[in-house]
Amino acid sequence: MDASYNLARWLTRNEHDAKDIVQEAYLREFKLFDGSHGTDARAWLKLKEKDKLARFEQSILPHLDAAYNLARWLTRNEHDAEDMVQEAYLRAFKFFNAFRGVDGRAWLLTIVRNTCYTWLQQNRAHEITTMFDEEIHSVDSDASNPATLALQSADQQILREALDELPVEFREVVVLRDLEGFSYKEIADIVNIPTGTVMSRLARARERLKQLLCNRGDLA
C-alpha cells in the first residue's frame, strides 16, 4: 500500500487524489477474483502490486527527463509540460499491465505525445495543422541534407528559440529525432504516421529551421 500511495502522491501532488487512485486500483484488482477472499486475496494483491511497481520503476521512471523534454517542446510552457508528464505517467501506470515491449522510453513518449495532443486540441486547436503534403516534398538523408549541415553549425540557444517557433508537427519530429535520437521507425510508431511521412516532415522542419535562423542572421 505504501509504495502505491507514494507513487500516486508524487504523480498527483494531492493526498486525497492519491488515496482515491490507490483505492480504485485495489477495487479493480479485487474484481479479478473468482472465489478468492480474505488473507490469501490480500496477500496476492500485495505481491502483485509490488511486482507491478517494481517493473514500472525499472522500465518507465528512468525516462522522466525525455518525457518532460518532449512535453516541453510540444506545449512550449514549463508548467503545462509538468502537468502533461504527470498525466502521462498516471496513464502509463494505469495501463502498465498492457505494456509488453522492451522499449519503455518509446512506449512512454507515445503516451506523452497523445496526452499533449489531447490537451492542445482542447486548448490550442489552432496550433495543430497540416503544413505540407508529403507527396510533393523530397526527402534527403540526414548526412547530406544541406539544411541539416547548416543547423549543426548554429548557436544552440538560438537554434532552440527557432525550434520553439515551428508548428507542433515539426517540433515533435525534430525533438524525437535530433534531441532524443529515435529512429524513423520508432518515431513513426510514436506519432502513428508512416515512416515516409516522418522523413518528409523532418526534412521540411529542418528546412524551416534553416530559414528561421537565416532570418535571425545566425546562418550565412
Strand content: under 5%
Task: Look at the structure and name the CATH superfamily of the domain at 134-216.
Answer: Winged helix-like DNA-binding domain superfamily/Winged helix DNA-binding domain
**CATH fold annotation of the domain at 134-216:** Arc Repressor Mutant, subunit A
Tell me, what's the shape?
A: elongated
Would you identify the CATH architecture of the domain at 134-216?
Orthogonal Bundle
CATH class of the domain at 134-216: Mainly Alpha
Instruction: Please tell me how large the radius of gyration is.
Output: 21 Å
Low-confidence stretches: 32-36, 130-141
Largest sheet, strands/sense/barrel: none
Total DSSP helices:
11
Portion of residues within helices: over 70%
Cα separation of the termini: 60 Å
Mean pLDDT: 76
Task: Summarize the structure in words.
This protein is an all-alpha fold. Among the domains are: 1-59, no CATH class; 134-216, Arc Repressor Mutant, subunit A (Orthogonal Bundle), CATH 1.10.10.10. It has 11 helices and no strands. The chain is elongated and about 70 Å long.
List the helices and strands and how they pair.
Layout: H1 2-12, H2 15-30, H3 38-59, H4 64-75, H5 78-94, H6 104-123, H7 146-152, H8 156-164, H9 168-179, H10 184-191, H11 195-216
Features of the shown structure:
mainly alpha, elongated, 220 residues, 11 helices, Arc Repressor Mutant, subunit A
Sum this structure up briefly.
Helices cover 71% and strands 0% of the residues. The chain has helices at residues 2-12, 15-30, 38-59, 64-75, 78-94, 104-123, 146-152, 156-164, 168-179, 184-191, 195-216. Helix 1 (2-12) crosses helix 2 and helix 10 crosses helix 11 (195-216).
